[in-house]
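Researcher: I'm preparing a figure for a lab meeting and need a structural model of a single chain. I don't have an experimental structure, so a prediction will have to do for now. The sequence is pasted below. Please return the structure as tokens so I can convert it later.
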Amino acid sequence: MKVSIVIPAYNSEKTLEKCLKSIRDQTYGNIEIIVVDKFSKDRTVEIAKRYGARIIYDEGERTRAKNIGLEKAKGKYVLFVDSDMELSKKVVEECVNFIESDESIGGIIIPERSVGRSFWVKVRDFERSFCVRIKRESARFFQKGGMMK
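Model: Understood. Here is the structure written out token by token.
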């Protein structure tokens, strides 16, 4: 089953390469990468193209970018990833196996780590470290047909 990974991006050249490398290094191989770019003024698009990502341009904010990526996704499953996230090597494979094991699963929460160096990225990553066992985290992995906008 194909997994579409949707990444909203804007001037993300400092973090996007690590994110895309972590996607390329997944143990699950049937992945398409969609970067919804807000007309970045840096090398974001150039980096995304090097990793074979499909680029979609849109002026909207993150939620709109995710919805546009979802509409264009060709996969049975969709994973929303931020441009400053780095995925563990087996996360996509584990998500596919888990969601296919039980059709009642609506979405899957994945462990999140940000890879940026800015103060706010560090603050967000520190904040996420406290939420590991909280049940109110947002799901990021879904079956495409089962999603509601």
